[in-house]
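Can you give me the bound-state structure? Components:
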Amino acid sequence: MASKLAPATKPIFRAQLTSRPSNGHTAFVPQIRKLVFEYCDKWASSANTRTYLHNHLEELARAHPHIEVVVRQRNLKQPIVRGFYLNDNEKVIPLNGFEVNGIQNKVQLLLDSSGAKIKSLKRRTVESTAESARGIWSGVHDTPFKI
Amino acid sequence: MAHAQKRLAATASRVAHVPLSSIKSFPPKEALAASTSKRPFSPETWSALQPPPPSAFSALAHRIGLASTVDTGDLQQACTHPSVLQLHATHLPNQPPPPANGNLATLGNSLLGLFATEHLSATYPHLPTRVLKAAVSAYVGPYTCANVAREIGAAHLLRWQRTPPTPLKPAVLHSDALSSIPRALTALVYQHRSLPVARTFAQNFFLSREVDLRPMLKFRDPKLNLTETVAKFGRERPVSRLLNETGRFSNSPVFVVGVYSGADKLGEGFGSSLKMAEYRAAEDALHRLYLTRTPPHLVQLPTATFPAVEGGEEGAYAPGDLGTSEVLTGSAGRSSIVLPKRPSFAEEDVDES
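Here's the bound-state model for the whole set.
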C-alpha cells in the first residue's frame, strides 16, 4: 500500500482563529473607566482638592459620561486621584501641593492615558502593523520593498 | 516570581469585582461570626451574587456608543450569563431570578455569523471555503468575542458561575461566559434598532479587527497547486526565474525568485536557498489569487436590502462575480486508503418515449 501523505493543505488549528484589536479605526473605546478621588475633610493639604470637587467635578463627570466618578473621604491622609483602565492597570496621582488648575491638569493626564506602562522613547524599536511610508530598503531590489 | 504574579492577576481578573462604592456595609453581615446561617460564608459566592452598580453599566453604554439605544436593565441582562441562575436559586431563592443573556447571545451569534460571512465572501470572492470558514471564526468566533468583551470593559460586569462539563452540556469557562456579552449586545442593537444598525455595530467592533489570512492559506506543495491552478485558467505553465541573488556559497545567501506564466509575473519570493525562494514565490502567487480583495466602496452585501426603518424601502443589491473554486490537488481531503464502494440508490429511469 502507498504510504499516507501529509494533507495537501495544512490544517488550521483553533488557536489561530483570533483577531487583533484596532481601537479607533472605526469606533473608539476610551481606555479610562473610573476615576476615584480621595480627600480628607479637615487637613489643609486637601483644601484645593475640596474646592475642585465642589466646583469642577460635576462638569467633568457630565462631559465624560463613559467614566464612573467616585468621591471617597479618606481622613488623615493626603488627597489622591486614582484612574482605573480597561487593561486592569491603575494610575495613582497625589494632589497635595497643586492649585485647582494643577489638579485639573493631573485629572486630564489620567483621562488622556491608556493605562499602558510608560516606556522610554530612547531605546524602543519601531513596532507597527502598518506599512512604511517610503518602503523598506532592500539591497536586492531596484525599488524599495513594499510589504 | 513574575509567573506567580501573573497567575495571581489572572485569577483575580476572573473573580467577581465588587467596588466598595456600590455596597452599603463592608464586611457583609453574613460574613460576621455572630450571624447564624445554615451555610458557611463563602466570599467567592457572595461576590458572584452582588450586582454591579448601575453607574458601571451607564459608563459601559457610553463607552461603546449605545447610550441612546439600550438602557441599564438591558445591559445588565446582556452581562448576566445563564450559569449564574443556578447559584442565584441556591443562595437567593426569595428574590426573582435576574434575566439572563442566553437567548440574546444565541441571536447575536447568528447575526454576527451572517454579517461576517457576507462581508468576507463579498470582500474575498476567490477565498477557498475552508479558509472562509476559518476567517469567519477569526472575526466573530469565541476567542474574538471574549477579547472584545475584555476590551470594552465588560469583564468586571459579567455575572457567571464556573460549571464543570456534564454529559448533556459542555463546561462553562470564563471565556465562554465573556463571549456571550458582545453577542448579546449585537442582539440588543438589532432588537432596539434594525438589522442595518446591528450590521454597523458588528462592522465597528468585529469586522474592523485585524486578521491575517495568509497563515490560513498554507500548502504542502504550493508549486503543484500553482501548476494545476494555472492550467485551470488556461495560461502557460509556470516557470521560476532567478531575479536577484547575493551571497551564494556564503553563510547568509539571499535569492529572489519570480514565478512567471509566459511574460506575466505571478509571484515573487525570497529565501536563503533556491528551493526556499521558489516555494515562497509559488505561495505568493497563490496568495495573490485567493486573497484578491474587492475595494470597500464596491463591496455589495445581501443584507443591504433590509430597510433601515420597518416598512421602509428595500435597498439595492447587485451580486458580485462568482469566485473561482479552489483546485484540489493530490488526495486533498481523501485518505490514500481505498474504501469499498457503497451501493448507490437505484435511479428511476425517466421514460423519454
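A couple of observations. The radius of gyration of chain A is 25 Å. The mean pLDDT of chain A is 91.
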